[in-house]
Amino acid sequence: MNFWEKLGKSERPFFCLAPMEDVTDTCFRQIVMKAGRPDVFFTEFMNIEAFGTKGEDKVIHRLKYAKKEHPIVAQIWGMDLRKYILGIKKIKELGFDGVDINMACPEKRIIKNGACSALIKDPAFAKEIILIAKEAAGDMPVSVKTRIGFNNIQTEEWIGFLLTMGLDALTIHGRTRKEMSKVPAHWDEIGKAVKMRDEMMKAGGKLVGNKPAKKTLIIGNGDIKNREHGIEMAKKYGVDGIMIGRGIFHNLLAFKTGGADGSSADFSALPIKKRLKYALDHLELFDKTWDDFKNYEDMKKFLKMYIIGFEGANDLRVKLMGTKKNEEAQKILEELI
Ligand SMILES: Cc1cc2nc3c(=O)[nH]c(=O)nc-3n(C[C@H](O)[C@H](O)[C@H](O)COP(=O)(O)O)c2cc1C
User: Fold this and answer.
1) Where in the chain are the domains?
2) Using one digit for the tens of pLDDT, what is the confidence trace for 176-192?
3) Out of 38-42, 147-151, 262-266, which region has the weakest mean confidence (pLDDT)?
4) Predicted model pTM
5) Is-catalytic flag, 16?
6) The CATH homologous superfamily of the domain defined by 3-250
7) Ligand 1: nearest atom to the Cα of 171
């Protein structure tokens, strides 16, 4: 049984931390884990074109993870089918629990050659990618993350098609490519996808080749604030799993249960010293993990996230933003804890 199958049999919904480029690297994932862990982690997305090139060393950091992060899924994107084979072989060697194909990213620079969300307009090629990926992955599960359409909502055609592909899991971000992140996520469409999947399974599953399609777990994504909210939406729309992205910026404890009544934990309710300790832990981990590989400036967006909403936070933030080195920031925080 692969880890998705196990999750499918466990208590619902299960929770995933969304892949977020330049945010969810191994350091941030480990900090989230300390705060309250989700059931599944995803890496930032990785362009498969880099595999087997001289440039591979420059981007392979995206696939760095710590043992305690299992189950962890590597997310990839790209258009070269041969590179999918190469990349997935490497992902298997690196010990990932699964591979996820990005068919969701809306950015112009990414989709101009037909990749990511542009695949919604080319299901025939999306099918080729999935079939190649499944073959290369062997017993490692393959999942897809996508949106509900390109210019318009196309849940029936596009999600309906993906549900016949024998994927282990499908994350549905409830917006079209055109909508970017500008409108509230269409959770009713995510709910529709669940109903379509259930109808298909009742009818015996559509055929993939000559095999019946397996039950694809559906993970709902878009605007979920925390565990409590995720549970509410899963009840309402029937999804198996919930993925939280930006919610973690506002509440590092988004995956944690707070009170005995099941209410969610709230980072801003923690004593200030505890909040500062998360910032310090992150600085130390960043230093230890990346040394000179990543620029200290990359760390500052996280400091902004931790140092907010208490008396003196503004001044402290300004002081930290003025630091030139990780150790300088660590020293400032150590004196306050
Ligand atoms: C800074 C940032 C980076 C992102 N990078 C990725 C990525 O690498 N791969 C991906 O599938 N989605 C990426 N996303 C989209 C999120 O995974 C998620 O689908 C989206 O933010 C909606 O979920 P939310 O409302 O919970 O944030 C990114 C989003 C943000 C805000």
Assistant:
1) 3-250, 270-336
2) 999 999 999 999 999 99
3) 262-266
4) 0.96
5) no
6) Aldolase class I (3.20.20.70)
7) 19
